[in-house]
Structure prediction request, 508 residues.
Amino acid sequence: MEKDRLIIFDTTLRDGEQTPGASLTANEKLKIALQLEKLGVDIIEAGFPRTSPGDLLAVKTVSKHIKGAVICALARATKKDIDDAYEALKNARQGRVHIFLATSAIHRKYKLRKAKDEILKTSIEAVKYARKKFSDIEFSPEDASRTEPDFLAQVVEAVIKAGAKTVNIPDTVGYSVPGEFGAVIKGLKDSVPNINKAVISVHCHNDLGLGVSNSLSAVLNGARQVECTINGLGERAGNAALEEIVMALKMRKDIFSGIMTNIQTKQLYKTSRLVSRLTGITVQPNKAIIGENAFSHESGIHQDGILKRRDTYEIIRPQDVGFKGSKLVLGKLSGRHAFSERLKDLGYQLSGKELDQAFIRFKALADKKSKIFDEDLAVIVEDELSMVREEYKLINFQVTSGNKINPVANVELEKDKERISASSTGDGPVDACFKTIDKAIGLKGKLIDYKVSAVTSGKDALGEASVKVAFGHESVIGRASSTDVIEASVRAYVNAVNRFSLRKKKLR
Ligand code: KIV
Ligand code: ZN
Prediction:
């Protein structure tokens, strides 16, 4: 394979946001986009403007501030969708519209109720219409991997002729396996006469856990753009993980003969943490590349090998993906300067206000915890960055519990400068607090998931609580940290309530 460059198309803010339970405000999308720009992605798919005013605003906001990457908006093959994408991307330095229409037999028959010739005609018309507004057009035959090869080739040829500069081949339901998917790409290269006039892209879902493998197989067969997400977020089982694709190319240059990306791999860990915090979706500890265990060695034999020579059991240097081990950094007497310098070393750039807030949190933590580690700082800062507007603010809570009494909680919240308080019993102190918050705000939340974990070791470790709560059909995630796990849990629940009310406003 010739030396070449692979375009990294990040869809964390679009397909990634379709992860059940993940929802981002325009401001949160901008924070992630700024980090993706630092990471060096080529294209940021920022949303699907026609689906909601909130998403249109988000794409507009990202377009206005990000100048180092192409900004892309998704559209169905309709004039209205393309018009909305244009409106959202007006201020982008370079905007791309990504038009999709399903081509597989199952989608044609049951979802679209359209015959092949109608699909072909609609695709061509949509691309021709988009050409009046965009110079950069991408077309996706949705469910391409389950489409008859000759029809897929026909659609691809037609949309390139109509003006598409990128043809994206999605494995929409993650059904393909690597050899087969690579052959689809090779088949298109061999059979579509004008294929050299467009970049071949792939977009692989992970339903069989093969999203990354299928993407890499496509690259070996000529694809030069991959669509992927941070932490592998995305619809259902997610999309191919950006960090895994990029590191596979970097570590296995022998296989991918010099195919390069623009990604600054040292930014991977930080990007992953930010996305996890803002979407509320935790990263599994054994996740490749950026999971907390990716660089821990448990067995004695492995530890011995590592001490003798690191690459006996470690193929990636942790620092190459921006992973920093536990390090004692600051304590009670550390000042604002040392605090802000350490954050800079860790790669966080905070606004003056964010720094002030984070410093207050740091001082409060240092009062309770003698040794503060980098991980503690990361949690404090990421908490600040992921803070949603607090419609409900926790003022005070008290809970009494024991093995012989019914737990009782009192909670005081503030909304629009008014205090609301309530009291309730529950099955345990945490349940009593959650029920009391429900009572105070007049909503009924169903706790779907609840986790508490220690950020570092020791009895005074910072505890991080995360909750997943369903309010009716909507489920939201909330997170918070404190050295007191009940306080962390209460704050996480209030955070979930605030995310829910923000989401309701966004959908309005
Ligand atoms: O999975 C898919 O097919 C998509 C398209 C919109 C590209 O997300
Ligand atoms: Zn998708």
Notes: The chain has a mean pLDDT of 91.
